[in-house]
Every structure is written in C-alpha cells, then in structure tokens.
Amino acid sequence: MTKLNLPEQSVLGTLILPVAEVLELRGISAKPLIESVGIDPARLSHPDYRVPGAQFHQLLKLCVEQTNDEAIGLACAEVMQPQALHGLGLAWLASDTVYDGLRRLVRFARIIASIARLHIEEEDDLVLLHLQRTTDADESSPTGRDYGIALVVRMCQLNLGQFISPYLIEIERPAPESPGTWESKLACRVKFNASRTCISWVRADIESQIVTGDPALARVNDEQAEALIKDYTDESLSKQVVDKILLRLPDGPPEQGLIAQDLCMSNRTLQRKLKQEDVNYSDLLQDCRMRLAKKYLRQHGRSVSETSYMLGFAEPSAFNRAFKRWTTMTPAQFRSHGD
C-alpha cells in the first residue's frame, strides 16, 4: 500500500488551535506551553503545517497538568470548527447523511491525523467507527483519545444541525475520576478500560437524509467550481456531466456508470450522447480535475493536501504524479511559477 506523503505520526497544526483557545479561556497563556513541546504557534493556521504525534500528546498531557482537568480533551473538541479540517470539514457538512460523512472521514482521516487509523464495521443494526492508534502506547495519551472521540461526535452534531446521540462509546483508557462528565458531554454510555476505541450508532439514526444540507457545499463549496461549470454551454450534456462530477469528486473520481445513473440514463446512452458532442467521459473527468487543480493551487491559503482531497485523490503523492503528467510540473513548481 502506498503511504501518504506526510510526516509519520503527525496531526494537522490546526488541531492545536482549539487547545490554545481552551487554555486561554481558562486564563492560561497558551503560547509558552505550546512552544515548550517544540510546536511553533505562529504556524498553526498554515494549511501545510503538521505537528509530530509525540509533541501533540505531550502538549495534551501538559494541558491536563496545568488545568487539573482530565476532561480537557472533550472541551477542545467542543470549540472545534469544521473549517479547521479544511476540505474534509466542508465536505462533511455537505454530506447527505451522517453515515456518508463518516465514510469520507475514514477515507481521508490520515490527512487530518496519521496517529490513528479509522475503519467502519456494521454489526446488526449498529454502525461502529473504530479508532486504532498508530503511535506507541507510551507516546499516546488518554486525552488524545478523548479529543478524537469527542471531535467525531461534534462533527456529527454539526452535520445534522442537532445532536445525535451515539449508542455506545468504548475507549482504551483508564476510567477517570468523574466518568459522568464523559457520559454527559457525549450523551451516551461510555465504557472505559475497553479493548478497543470505537463509537457505535444506531444505523437508522445516521442514515436519515439531512434536509438542511446545502447543495452548494456539495459542489466543493467553492466558487471556482461554479465558474468551471459555466465554461460549458448550459444546454450541453457535457455541462451536466461536469456538474455531477463536481458533486462527487471529494469521494473519489466517479465512474462513468455512476454519473449515467445520476443523469437517469444508461451508461451506453451517456457514452453515445457525449460522442455526439465530440467528447468522452474520461477526457471530461481529467479536464475537470486538471483545471480545478490549477485554480486551487493559485489560492495560496489552500494546501496541496487539501487540493488533492478536493479533487478526489486519496493521497497527495497520487495527485502530485497526476498533476505532473498533466502539466510537466509538480504542484509546488506550478505554484512557484505563478502560472
């Protein structure tokens, strides 16, 4: 399996911002504490800045000591905003169902934090999201697991616009002195000293359509995507195909048959009608991704990792290869040339 082109055992720097916010709210200066573990506070908002997992967990341990609050990981998740997760956070809000959002999270979680691996399992009428740490037990922290669990629960809340209670949460961490705090904030029964870390939901709860969903967000939440659609004539099938491609890109490059299904026609009919416009599906998909890539890379606040996600690439290294094939330049070279 090809590995992500990311530092081993690391998290996005933006995950430290809620930690700093909680510290400041409690009257503790966050900057010196963050600096004491080797993290640069000035770079936390930079989309490409990553923090080694060991430093992340070390900071959380210090936060517990400074605040005397072993539930501080839960508090950090409460102030997290989806924008801090870049493209994944925005795509999460665009998901049709919470289950759809969880699938996206599993696919791209390594970009957010490579200190854990996620996978989904179905058991009868339940859906389980497993969080398996990749750091050594000595380096990880119970607070980090609390933060990760609470962050997922928080995102589900934002996704629905209302709170959705998990069925059960199991955590590989010692029972805290006040376990009721966890059950109160996470709104479900919490099992400590578990053999696994996972969140369980009733499947029917997370498969319900989200009536407040915003279709604009599903189009990558970006005006550039709308501009690309306008490059095709309103009457053309090509325009309709590109529109559907943009809706599905964050989940990976859609197959032609899936787009045909979205347009309520057979795969063969779609192929024939595109041929009448002197185009084919493969070229439309590649052209769509290439032109969006150039637009995104011109936006200096958007990282290469985020761009790769928005275009449906599971790994930045795959995006780098594709972009070089399209333009003979790497994304970094393209950005430096200002083309």
TrEMBL record:
Top-level taxon in the UniProt lineage: Bacteria
Gene Ontology MF annotations: DNA-binding transcription factor activity; transcription cis-regulatory region binding
Ranges where the HTH araC/xylS-type domain occurs: 239-337
Keywords, in A-Z order: DNA-binding, Transcription, Transcription regulation
Gene3D superfamilies reported for this sequence: Homeodomain-like
GO CC terms in record: cytosol
Record flagged with keyword Oxidoreductase: no
One Pfam family recorded for the sequence: Arabinose_bd
Name of the protein in its database record: AraC family transcriptional regulator
Native source organism of the sequence: Halioglobus maricola
